[in-house]
Prior knowledge:
- Helix content is 67%, strand content 6%.
- By secondary structure, it is α/β, with parallel strands linked by helices.
- It has a 5-stranded parallel β-sheet with strand order 2-3-4-1-5. Strands 6-7 form a two-stranded antiparallel sheet.
- Helix 4 links the parallel strand 2 (95-97) and strand 3 (128-133).
- The longest helix is centred in the C-terminal third of the chain and has 73 residues, at 364-436.
- The protein is elongated, with a radius of gyration of 61 Å.
- The termini are far apart.
- The model is unreliable at 256-273 (pLDDT under 50).
Amino acid sequence: WSNFLKPGLDTVDRNLEFVADCNQLVSILDSILDEYNVHHPTSKLQMIFFQDCIVHICRTCRVMSQNSGHALLVGLGGSGRLSVTRIASYLCDLRVLQPELKQEFSISDFRDFVKEVYLLCGQQMIPCCMALADAHLVNDTILQDVNLILGHGDVPGLFDEEDTDKVVSELRKDAIKAGYPGSTGGIMSFFISRVKKNCHVVLNMSPVGAVFKDRCRRFPALINCCNIDWFWQWPSTALRQVAKAHIAKMTDMESLISSSDSKDGSPIANQAVDLCWTDNVSAILVENHSAITDAAESYYKESRKRVYTTPSIFLDCLTMYRRVVGDLLTSLIEKITRFESGLRKLAETNDRVATMQAELNALQPELVRKTTQTQELISSIAVDEQQASQIRETVLQETQVVQLQTQEVESMRVDAQHDLDEALPALESAIQALNDLTKGDLVELKSFTSPPALVRTVMEAVCLLLGEKQDWDSAKKVLGDPNLMKRLLEYDREDGRFS
């Protein structure tokens, strides 16, 4: 019996309906699970809806659909109690709230959590599910508060005076409208009635040891005010279904199988291999888990010591199997990739070699022609080299002759420089003497009819320098030149010409 076949309706308008086909519930629950994961991205659920799981979900939904409906889910760790609580609460439009576990979880932390839930349920009228586990029930004081919440909903000392006044001031009109007295006690009774209507407690407890028995005996509300749902060992069919679902998520293996070469290469054959592989592995894992369970029972009969094989152990085994197979597949795929890459490179190399060979064959005549030209060029270079050698010898001989001439010229330059060095003082004396001459001296020289020998010699030299005849008449003409002094002073002593 279920009340979530029409999820779009409000919880008040839903009716219980009997479902004979379990597959119909599986499809509905799968869609609801996808919707839940979309709305809760940080706390996604991974569930496989086998028959026992569906029974637990339907039973929990029926409990939560009732006013003050509380549930006690009893089972070993990893049996799926919290997942059932979350999905059932989502089906009943309840907000799931759990206390945050700390290193030292105390009664004050628990009461702060209860106060938050009470304000949501009684003040804001938000339906909530208070999910509690053994880890939250750390002492008897917390269990006593849980016992009061399950019994009549009122926890003494939960709200201080300030919080009480705030609740009373906000709910006074609604309480009086509902027929409750306007006193503080009446309004708080109205508040508690709202809490009892909207708050649902789900206890996830383990039956291992004597703690569970002692708590049920000392706190009777755990039994009297809760609907008890026992989570037994998963049957073999459920284990096989869960194993198949986990293995089906191994997309790497599926892709590897689908890409591998079968005998006929058809997709049907690949699909058959996939199904056969999944069924065989699932059967082996379930058989191993069942064998461990039987061995644990035999060990208990022999030693009276209990060893529990929980569904979480089976899930851990599946996770480990997927991790190991995933590592092997990754290594295998890397090797296949490298092998295919090597084959591809070899094929590319062969294509390039064939192309280069064809190009080489096409260039063979040109290569022969170039070789012939090269040989001719080498012969020509040899002839040129011989000629260059002869020219080099000639140049060497001429270089030696030039070096001898250079030495002779250098010797002559040294001698000329020596003569020049000796003549320079005389030149300076002549320039000084020239500067000392006056026009009167020139007139006096010009008046000589028969000059002395030294005067004649000097004037012949001046006529020679000036390009005149070397006689006294020409000398007298030169002496009559008014620019004679200027011409002699500006005479180019380097080239032997006037400037």
